[in-house]
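A further point concerns the way the authors explain their paired sequence and structure data. Showing the layout once, in full, would remove most of the difficulty. For illustration, here is how one protein appears when written out as sequence plus structure tokens:
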Amino acid sequence: MTTLSRRALLSATGAVSLTAILAACADTGADGQAVSGGGDADYDTVINSGPVAAADVVAASSWASAIKEAGVLKTGGTKTAAVFSSEDATTGKVTGFDAAIAQTLARYIIGGDDARALLDITQVTSDTRETTLENGSVQAVIATYSITPERAQKIDYAGPYYSSGQAVLVRDDEDKITGVGDLAGVKVAVQSGSSSVTALNKAAPEAQQVPFDDQPACLNGLKTKQVDAYVVDYTLLLSALQSNEGLKIVGDPFTEDPYGIGLPHKSDAKAFVDTFLQTIYDDGTWASIWKATIGAVAGGDAPEPPAIGSVPGSENDAASAPAGQDDSGAGDSSSAEASASPAA
């Protein structure tokens, strides 16, 4: 049974700032060449060393072509989730695993030497992710966005590009809750509209779910004793421990949650982005991003990324592809390629 507190996390990472942690672990670029030390520049080298799509590959996708013409990729995401997508209050730079995936995708489409400048993040919550895609205010959602068949009825998913799982956060002085098996009758914070709701219904049906809008609200509810536990993705809880005293993760993750990139439904975006993901898997860019972000906190070697199209809702479905499009996600140029923290 795993218990992880902020003190243990900071001890494991040397009690240095997240920015320093990210920089320290990003010691090689995506091309495999050594990257010199120097703080934030190491992360920048990772996101600026990834692949850039050929002009004819971009031109073959109407979705990618519109982004290249505009010179910016508009995504739904967050700016307050340490490890995944967090904005530096001083510099305004957004850093993290999801942020890096988005920045690398933007550069893959548009090109250039400054991936950060190519990304425009609109804050989303668990309740607004589909809406922003459906109304066209963003071109993709990259926000710890769990793939589900139900959501795939409204949007398309590229990926999955990462897999995590739901876990339980409690206050440090809590000794009766050691995992999801102890949540019967307990008031548990969940993000409204997130996959945590369904996961808890299955794993702890007698838990008293209390919905909040976003992660900061859930954490506040736990700290002020409105609730006695908070359930969300394990890696989001790791990010919470970075900046919150008096909390600990108990037990092990009790689900598997594959994250996907949300895209406009029945567009030609999915095949293009799936090919982008496979490209950064194959050339080592994905592993470099992981090491510079999640790996800086979790430690160890980069895992194997999940197989694209491997979970329900992410399959290449000919019925959902535009007429005349090869939805294989590979094989020819026509199919190449969030102040709240949304939950999975």
About this structure: The longest helix spans residues 97-110.
